Amino acid sequence: MEYLVSGKNMKEIDRQTIEEVGIPSLVLMERAALLVVTAIEKRYGKGQKILCVCGTGNNGADGIAVARILHERGEESAIYIPVESEHYTEEWKVQLAIAETLKIPVFRKSPKWDEYTVLVDAIFGIGLSREVSGRYQEVIEKINSLKMAVVAVDIPSGICASTGSVLGCAVCAEITVTFGIRKIGLVLFPGALYAGEIQVENPGFPKEVIDKWKGDVYTYTRDDLKKLPKRAKDGNKGTFGKVAVIAGTEGMAGAAYFSAMAAYRMGVGLVRICTCEENRNILQARIPEAILTTYTEENVEVQIQEVMEWADVIVVGPGIGQSKVASRIVRWALDYAVEHQEKTIVLDADGLNLFAKMKYPLKWLSGNFIFTPHLGEFSRLSGWSIKELKANLEQKVREYVEEYGVCLVCKDARTMVASQKENGIFINLSGCDGMGTAGSGDVLTGIIAGMLTMGLSRKQAAELGVYFHGLAGELEADLIGEHSLCASDLLEGIIKVYQMKKVQ
User: How much is the pTM?
Assistant: First the structure.
């Protein structure tokens, strides 16, 4: 597990380290600058001509220190200060005085940009909260127009450290050397597009201080696959869990197939598909392992009730359409879940869209529901526009689960998982853009259902399921390419993740 920190919390880590622990700011700055220099030398080698573009705060002071250390190592470096200020920090003044004493070139007007091969972005740090404008905007736009390597100090200038949003404009970096903990804004889009390769380095923040202020936002690494429970040696199909997949209308049998097959790939003992009669032949041919229950408009309620009684975990929604029958199915499933708190309902796709149209008493919802909306579906569920959601998705996810008590899997390029019952926000970093394809969400639903049968909590199952799903996509994309990735490939990816876990 790796924690991701907000700009506010990171500033507290910095403040407490200096003011309460007693490590001088200049000491931290010196170490930070050395880490940036090391990253530059490792990536680009020696003999580069390096221009450090520096703002007027401590991020700018870091940049001045970088130029000085490079100079001391015999490298050709220079400093560019694009804007004058009456409010330089004391550290900035000290660093500039040293640089001037050593006769390092300092430009106050635009340098000859094409003379340099590497540019260090030290304009703004994590404390930026206003939109970039004026001379700074001109400089950032100039930097982005240049064909040279850019190394960002702590965060690309113009990116909000807490949300990843672009504050007017932002530097597009090839490498970002960030200090202490990875910032949330470096992993959320669009910030992630500007950060390039992220290197996390600690210039001396004490573990005790980091632990106090790291917050409750985190992601997973491959070590977290160890959280998967071991399979019981004396188990059988009855003890390995029963998953009902209520999915698929006529012409949408694929949604039922992908969810059910993914559940089986995860190790579920019994999967029962409940779908319309028209899907019988294709599903019997495609997935003979599944128990198949079909319904007609005349017997649908009886069949749905029987299937829900049978199951440990119930998936509702993939490909069921928007008909009146589908709406009744969702309503019955909701009512059943409210009365049977021991069972988990995973509501997905069409199920979410139908729910959004209902005037269902939201106060009835509880922690045994897992909702898996993408941003469009989340917008319909919540009433917030997609623009509002993108402005601060983490905050909106927190507000929704606090209000309604469900476990929420908000699917996006960076999927978030949250639950009222368990603290913290999980942000997923696994996966690739090839996974933006039809059926991918159905596979995820089946994976989460499979995780739930292993005895994990609902939030743990959702988090690990999302991470597992992304990793399956990565492994398959490595073989066939992101453009060619299909939902059926993700089923093969599940096998590869398990194989990888076995050799760890």
Answer: 0.95
